[in-house]
Amino acid sequence: MRAAEDAAVAAGTSVDTLMRCAGEGIAAAVRRLAAGSDILVVCGPGNNGGDGSIAASVLHSQGFPVRIAATADPKTPAARNARDRWVGEVEPFAQARPAPILIDCLFGTGLSRALDDDLDTRMTELARDARLVIAADLPSGTDADAATAPDWARHAPVMVTLALGALKPAHVLHPAAAACGAVRLIDLGIDRPAAVTVAGTPDLPCPGPASHKYTRGMVAIVAGHMAGAARLAAVAALRSGAGYVALYGDGGQGGPDAIVHRPFDGDALSDARIGAILIGPGLGRDAVARDRLAALVAADAHPLVIDGDALHLLDLDAPARRTRPVVLTPHAGEFKALFGTPAGSLLDQARSAAARAGAIVVLKGPTTIVASAAATRVHPGGNPWLSTAGTGDVLAGTIAAQLAHPGADPLAAASAGTWLHARAGQLCGASFVADDLANALTPARAGA
Q1: At which positions is AMP bound (predicted)?
Q2: Which residues make up each annotated binding site for AMP?
Q3: CA distances (Å), 390 to each of 278, 286, 403, in order?
Q4: Which fold has domain 218-447?
Q5: What is the spatial distance between Cα 191 and Cα 4, in angstroms, rounded to a whole number?
Q6: How many angstroms separate the CA atoms of 8 and 11, rounded?
Q7: Binding residues for (6S)-NADPHX
Q8: Which CATH architecture has domain 12-192?
């Protein structure tokens, strides 16, 4: 975003113009939320404070009861110009009276350290006495890239964050995302790269009059020591759109009758009708499991989803030697075991891991990140009740079903599967088990 702003200025858009757009956008959002209540805008010395001065001036001109409190005089030319528009008094921040609506314009993305203790304490006091806190771009004291959160914002009663121009990592990565509350985007009209985007409702293929079970995608799943995990993945694959699911090596028992049970046979897994193979849920980590994984990766016959135990057995150099796509689905512990701790935020780490492995990486967590070497899709707002055994197996099966569609783009397929999984979690609500989640994929898929 900083680079995009610099490019806009280099192309002839002034900082004052950008600040006016931001301030007017903030004022428009506050106007819808304030409901005529008294408003206190707290401004820092930089451009975030300038945004606040513009917003306060616009709100005042529209008849809203608004005050400004400042920590210091403006220090940038644009912020000084913005303050010159303000016709009222400026209260000292330390002595400012609270208001039902608090607008935080102390510090934006330029601050990469925690707030000083006295500022954090004062913001805690003002936030405690407010009915609604609205942060301009980020709650002051948030590191935009590392997604750390200030203490005061975590204790605010109701928080709305107005992201200026584009979402930042802190808007979608925890712990900062939780402190941001509800995030709304204020468009500044700035062109910016779209390599990282927040995933929306996917465009999923639907069967037509000429469709049959193989055109909808056949998923093959390799079972292991814990056959129930593979069956969960199989149910998920069927309920999220696959036309045919075969389980190899689970003993032929359990699950819906629609699942085909077969003994494990390497030759059978070369069937050209298979659209994707999933290996890992409940696989185990013995020599047999290792050999089966190595053979599937080396065969390069079908797209692969590698999950669970198989992630601990994977030769990390092997996926890059394939022509068929590979999707890796690690949680945080599996990710660290595979890749260590790459530098940067979780977004940086996922991208780095995808480039290292030559694969799509689905880094599971409260915000799930789906990354290739070139592009990243972010899925914030997961249901915390997904933290129960078997939900990862359901995700793996859901992704495999999307990858099995003929001609599927692997990044889009992994992202679509992640979205369906999250939607099913929302439909389940609370205190569910993984079987419920797998079954909820039917209404999730129907509503997509």
Answers
A1: 364-368, 392
A2: 364-368, 392
A3: 15, 21, 20
A4: UDP-N-acetylmuramoyl-L-alanine:D-glutamate ligase (3.40.1190)
A5: 7
A6: 5
A7: 229, 282, 331, 393
A8: 3-Layer(aba) Sandwich (3.40)
Q: What is the pLDDT along the chain (448 residues), one digit of tens a residue?
A: 888 888 999 999 999 999 999 999 999 999 999 988 999 999 999 999 999 999 999 999 999 999 999 999 999 999 999 999 999 999 999 999 999 999 999 998 877 678 899 999 999 999 999 999 999 999 999 999 889 989 999 888 789 999 999 999 999 999 999 999 999 999 998 887 778 899 999 999 999 999 999 999 999 999 999 999 999 999 999 999 999 999 998 877 778 889 999 988 878 788 999 999 999 999 999 999 999 999 999 999 999 999 999 999 999 999 999 999 999 999 999 999 999 998 888 999 999 999 999 999 999 999 999 999 999 999 997 899 999 999 999 999 999 999 999 999 999 999 999 999 999 999 999 999 999 999 999 999 998 7
Name 276's bridge partners.
219
- Decide if 12-192 and 218-447 have a common fold: no
| Residue 344 identity (one-letter amino acid) | G
Residue keyed to tokens 């889009």: 412
Q: Which amino acid is at 163?
A: A
Nearest Cα to 174, choosing from 33, 332, 307? 332
Helix axes 434-447, 227-239, angle to 10 degrees: 10
CB-based contact 242:438 (threshold 8 Å): no
H or E segment at 218?
strand 218-222
Residue 68, phi-psi category: left (phi > 0), alpha (psi -120 to 50), beta (remainder): beta
Please state the separation of Cα 262 from the chain's center in Å. 37
Residue 300 in contact with residue 269, Cβ under 8 Å?
no
| The two structure tokens encoding residue 331 | 């949680």
Task: Return d(Cα 369, Cα 328) in angstroms, integer.
Answer: 12
Cα–Cα distance measured from residue 120 to residue 125, given in angstroms and rounded to the nearest whole number? 9
Name the DSSP letter for residue 175: T
Q: How far, rounded to the nearest angstrom, does the alpha carbon of residue 146 sit from its chain's CA centroid?
A: 14
Q: How far apart are CA 166 and CA 214, in angstroms?
A: 41
Which residues are part of a known binding site?
Answer: 229, 282, 331, 364-368, 392-393
**Token couple for 407:** 């001609």
DSSP state string for 263-313? ---TTGGG-TTEEEEEE-TT--SSHHHHHHHHHHHHH--S-EEE-THHHHH
Residue 207, SS3?
A: coil
